[in-house]
Specification:
The protein has 432 residues and is of the alpha+beta class. It has 13 helices and 11 strands. It has 3 domains: 110 residues, Trigger factor ribosome-binding domain (Alpha-Beta Plaits, 2-Layer Sandwich), CATH 3.30.70.1050; 96 residues, Roll (Chitinase A, domain 3), CATH 3.10.50; 165 residues, Trigger factor, C-terminal domain (Trigger factor, domain 2).
């Protein structure tokens, strides 16, 4: 086999391949064995028609497409390996010659991984490592826990106030016509949550049990449903019930109920430590994001659309998996959000492009700095995974090897090592 390539555009190459006639003959033999199983010829059982009779009756050309389908994947892969190009999308194949006794010639237009021209990536300024936990933050966390453990009681008398749960029926109309998704019965709405259209919750305040009211609002111009964006609407609302939160006192008894500690002081001290740990992780994550994005901004790279599409596919699949963990699916999400797949992909595209750019730049830095994953680092990662999944490290390594995921894991570890390298060679930003 002979394979050559030439660049025809940014990130696009033309791969020319010529395959020996012997391989063509082998592919035709395999194609005949496949096709003959489906051929009906009087006097012969399926699969028993002699080759000569088959070719006389149907022509050798009838085998060409099946033979091409058989030979092409292997020879294309071999040509890619021989030339060292790095495809990121399916090729556009043009068969130039295929016939019995002749060589197989084809060209392929291939979108390849782009070259990265690195800018400055050492000495980049990043945020400070850790911020101290304040008393206010501890109190805010306590208040969240207090809200989470509040008991709801039905209010028989009085009216809705901010913070109440209003159990309502509502029926929405635009220009006097009911619209899809604008009706619900016995919906529990937390007043002040901001979960409804701006102005809706404020107008429920002051209603009493059994009251009816027309709530007048205007949908935001940026509302996800185009047919409602910017439109004035009237919701006919009936209030069935008012539920009010009874907050527990923040004392030693509260600490005993929600934790393993006997006093509120001990619980607050533990809470401070956990908040400190959380903020440290968040701060480190912010530092990593900042240093990677600055290195990526300084680099020059033209990203193929195919790579953005692939990353968007991955993000969409990941989003679908997270929805399923919450008992939902994409179809339900589209109904509730008023979006469709095209709109969701459009939202994800910017982040997908940023991810692709960041990874390409990190790969280029790893190559420039000869950052490689050692066996020691790989073994340490399997030990960490073993603790996380409570399974032997050797067993996990075997699973990764059998599934062909070792290289993917190495790539991920290399990226992590590269980010660590960038942080070690960065400097702390000075606040103005």
């Amino acid at each position: 086999m002979k394979a050559t390539w030439e660049q025809i555009d940014t990130n696009l190459v033309s791969l020319s391949v010529e395959v020996e006639a012997e391989q063509v003959t082998e592919a035709l033999d395999k194609a005949f064995k496949k096709v003959v199983q489906k051929v009906n010829v009087p006097g012969f059982r399926k699969g028993k028609v002699p080759r000569a009779m088959f070719e006389k009756r149907f022509g050798i050309e009838s085998l060409y497409q099946d033979a091409i389908d058989i030979i092409l994947p292997d020879v294309y892969t071999a040509a890619v390996n021989e030339t060292g190009i790095l495809p990121v999308d399916r090729p556009e194949i043009d068969v130039q010659q295929f016939a019995k006794g002749e060589t197989f010639k084809f060209t392929a237009k291939v979108t390849v991984k782009p070259e990265v021209k690195l800018g400055d990536y050492k000495g980049l300024e990043v945020p400070a490592a850790v911020a101290a936990v304040t008393e206010e933050e501890i109190n805010e966390e306590l208040e969240r826990l207090q809200q989470r453990h509040a008991e709801l009681s039905v209010i028989d008398e009085g009216t809705v106030v901010n913070g109440d749960i209003a159990v309502i029926d509502f029926d929405g109309y635009v220009d006097g016509v009911a619209f899809d998704g604008g009706k619900s019965e016995r919906y529990s709405l937390e007043i002040g949550s901001g979960s409804f259209i701006p102005g809706f919750e404020d107008q429920v305040i002051g209603m009493g049990t059994g009251d009816f009211k027309d709530v007048e609002v205007t949908f935001p111009e940026s509302y996800h449903a185009d047919n409602l964006a910017g439109k004035a609407a009237v919701f006919k609302v009936k209030l069935h019930e008012i539920k009010r939160k009874n907050l527990p006192a923040l004392d030693d008894e509260f600490a005993k109920d929600v934790s393993e500690f006997d006093t509120l002081a001990e619980f607050k001290q533990d809470l401070e430590g956990k908040l400190q740990e959380r903020k440290a992780k968040e701060a480190e994550g912010a530092r990593e994001t900042a240093v990677v994005e600055k290195a990526a901004e300084a680099a020059e790279v033209v990203i193929p659309e195919a790579m953005v599409v692939t990353e968007t596919d991955y993000m969409l699949k990941d989003f679908e998996n997270r929805l399923r963990m919450q008992g939902m699916n994409l179809e339900l999400y589209y109904q509730f959000s008023g979006q469709n797949e095209a709109a969701l992909r459009s939202q994800m595209k910017g982040d997908a492009e940023k991810r692709v750019r960041n990874n390409l730049v990190l790969e280029a830095i790893a190559k420039a700095e000869s950052i490689e994953v050692s066996e020691e680092v790989l073994s340490e990662e399997f030990e960490n995974l073993a603790k996380a999944y409570n399974r032997p490290a050797d067993e996990l390594r075997d699973i990764f090897t059998r599934n062909g995921n070792i290289e993917n894991l190495k790539e991920d570890l290399a990226l992590r090592q590269t980010i660590k390298f960038l942080l070690e060679n960065s400097k702390e930003a000075v606040n103005a």
